[in-house]
Amino acid sequence: MRFRPPGRRDDVPATRAGSSPAEGGVGTGRAGAAHEQPTPALTGEGGTGDPRPGDHEATVAPAPTWQRGERARAGIRALAIGSAQLLLIAAALVVVGWVLGRLWVILLPIILGLLFATVLWPPTRFLRRHGWPPALAAAVVLLAFLALIGGLVAVIAPQVADQVTELADQAADGLEQVQQWLQGPPFNIDEEQIGQYVDQAIDSVQANASNIAGYAATGASAVGNGLINLVLALVLAFFFIKDGPRWVPWLAAQAGPKAAPHVAALSQKTWSTLSEFIKQQALVGFVDAFFIGLGLWILDVPLVIPLAVLTFFGAFIPIIGAFVAGAFAVLIALVDEGFTVALIVFGIVLLVQQIEGNVLQPIIQGRGFNLHAAVVILAVTAGSSLAGIIGAFLGVPVAALIAVVYRYTRDALDGRHPEVAGDGTHARVAGDDDGAVLTRGPASQAPPAG
């Protein structure tokens, strides 16, 4: 049996038409026969037009060449090198993540202090431009900031204290209404069954008293650590706004003349990104607080101002903050006004938060940070899964900073000189042994000489 390509028959000789095997073809002579390559005889059966019975047809795939093995080995070698590089990068990221996790106790106050500094720096700069000493300007602005926070607490606390007793009584009445509602159709639960459910809940709480105490201790410890981090962040913010203008020249001087323009440009871009984040979160929080507070005021729900302030600050903690603020508003509406008003408040809160979370916040942050809305949402999700509430709060600014560094590096590699400002100048280090300052000078295509 012979193996033939489709359409080739055994009884047809593999020679040109009109020629014989001995002559090598008409008009070609022995020279043509010398150049004619005989068709190799391959064993097998099948093929189109084969008169012999066969249960399959011959493959139409081409025969392998010697280059196939060499190219396969080259591809496997490239794949192995790429895999090794990917594993090294992954290992480096794991090490960096572990180091950052160990240093998180130090990094968190620094990050929060920088965020506070972005809020406090504009008034501090205003005072310094009008002749105030740096330390005095920073101290006055920081104290004014703390006074503002304290004033908000002073305004909110009396309203809460005046209405807490009334709300407690209304809460008890609300529970009785819920009990009566459960006793009616469609549940038809009698008072004895409700008492059994309450007793079971009490027994469950008593049985897990040790676990609950442990959770409470953990929560108290977390609150204590949060307060310590907050105080430390405020102290660091004072030094940031007092000595901040000196840090970039110091960093540029440590890096050297060639790297000074890049250090200054990256510092300015990252600082602008953090400032933009705070401004946008404040705008989103104001929109949430205004519309939810307006809805509560129209529905005559008590504690409108405290709930609006809580909603505003909750906007700085994506997802969790909005959920907690909305839950408080719905609960107070349920206790004070009843189920119908509470349902309306729930609809208002849900509508505002959906517009804020899916439309307003991604659009504002996407435009300000030049990030796609999907990247903003994924950054919040990844941050919350990695570091909880703080991670959700810091997810977007961290993603924006990564994007800033990536774009700057990309432009530098493409030779676009991102260190050059719009007026055609870049930063340069000037000074002597007594100190260094940053000056602006005309930029050339070539980097400054070292």
Automatic annotation (TrEMBL):
Single biological process term from Gene Ontology: transmembrane transport
Signal peptide start-end: none
Main location: membrane
GO cellular component: plasma membrane
Membrane topology annotation: Multi-pass membrane protein
Membrane-crossing residue ranges in chain numbering: 78-98, 104-123, 135-157, 222-241, 282-299, 305-331, 338-355, 375-406
Subcellular location: Cell membrane
Keyword Cell membrane: yes
Basic and acidic residues: compositionally biased ranges: 419-431
One of the Pfam families matching this protein, by short name: AI-2E_transport
Family: Belongs to the autoinducer-2 exporter (AI-2E) (TC 2.A.86) family.
Name of the featured protein: Predicted PurR-regulated permease PerM
